[in-house]
Amino acid sequence: MLEIALGSALMYYFAKESFDIKEKPAGAVYYTETLDSRNDSFTRMHRETVKIKPAIEDQFRGIVRQAYDYSCGSAALTTLLNGYVGAKLTEQQTMNGLLKFGETEKIIERRSFSLLDMKRFVAALGLESGGYRGEFTDLAKQGQPAIVPISYAGFKHFVVFKGYKDGRVYVADPALGNISFDETRFQEVWENNTLFLINVAPAQRKDLLALNEADMRHVDDATVNRYAFVDIQYPQFYMEKIADKASTIRLDKNQNESSENYGQPTYNYLRLYYKNK
Fold first, then answer.
1. Which of 3, 90, 97, 238 is deepest in the core (most CB within 10 A)?
2. Which pairs from 154-158 meet CB under 8 Å and 24+ separation?
3. How many angstroms separate the CA atoms of 193 and 21, rounded?
4. How far apart are CA 57 and CA 157, in angstroms?
5. What is the distance, to the nearest Å, from the Cα of residue 51 to the centroid of all Cα atoms in its chain?
6. Alpha helix (H) residue ranges in 193-277
7. Do strands 28-34 and 45-51 pair parallel, antiparallel, or not at all (unpaired)?
8. DSSP conformational letter for 25
9. Known catalytic residues?
């Protein structure tokens, strides 16, 4: 009886260890993979915990999404105030401020906010700001986020310029999230070379709109062509060994005069090679 109870306890213990029934943290996924299929081992399996999150969270990281089709201006301004100035505003609070301090009648008439409305609201918050015109080099080098108007997909829109790197312009779009344009395309959609800046003392600036690794999602064609067909699973000598095993063997005379086995019979591997026409 004791042996049966002990056996049952051991079976329960090993089953518990084999099947992970511990409570998992939210958003965690466990996957198991073979460490190296070429080597026999009692520890061939590797298990790792991976935290996952909806892609839309990263897509709109640091961005206040516009609630209405006409509210890109208020959403862009809220994004800039929160991410660069350190304010903690909702889009609705910004909209109320723009309506209160901006040109209310014109806002209602055109169903949109202007850079002048933004300037007046920002002034009410005790900050200096202004709209400027400049060349693309001025925008790329000025070193701080800015609201820029663009004409894109048939409509006028406000986005927040985040930075420029390696020929690409990265913006926080209240409608589409964190996106990028190549330099030429951005200059085509940039309206009147206009930008809106908020002056903030260096010690008070926040970096929530700074570029990070998650923004660098663009992969150019050259990179795809270079790495798409690279096989890095096995070393070259192993692939050579497999190719030799799959080839036809022919007995020939060694024609290498510098070889110690010159003139002696030797086996050669005859492989098949395919070439595109």
1. 97
2. 156/191, 157/72, 158/72, 158/73, 158/75, 158/76, 158/77
3. 59
4. 22
5. 16
6. 221-227, 236-245
7. antiparallel
8. P
9. 72
Among 159, 166, 175, smallest CA distance to 80 is for 159
Q: Are 172 and 79 in contact (CB under 8 A)?
A: yes
For 158, counting Cβ atoms within 10 Å of its Cβ (0-12 exposed, 13-18 middle, 19+ buried), the class is buried
Match 């002696």 to its residue by tokens.
264
Contact status, residue 216 vs residue 162, Cβ threshold 8 Å: no
189 is written with which tokens? 């959609």
DSSP 3-state assignment of 20? coil
What tokens appear for 40 in the block? 């026999």
pTM for the complete prediction? 0.64
Q: Domain 55-218, CATH 2.40.50.140 — does that match? A: no
**Helix/strand/coil for 24:** coil
pLDDT tens-digit series, residues 98-112: 999 999 999 888 888
**pLDDT tens for each residue of 226-236:** 655 555 555 55
Q: What residue ranges do the domains of the chain occupy?
A: 55-218, 220-276
Residue 190 backbone dihedrals phi, psi, to 5 degrees: -70, 120
Written as one letter, the residue type at 90 is T
Residues contacting 143, CB < 8 A, separation 6+? none
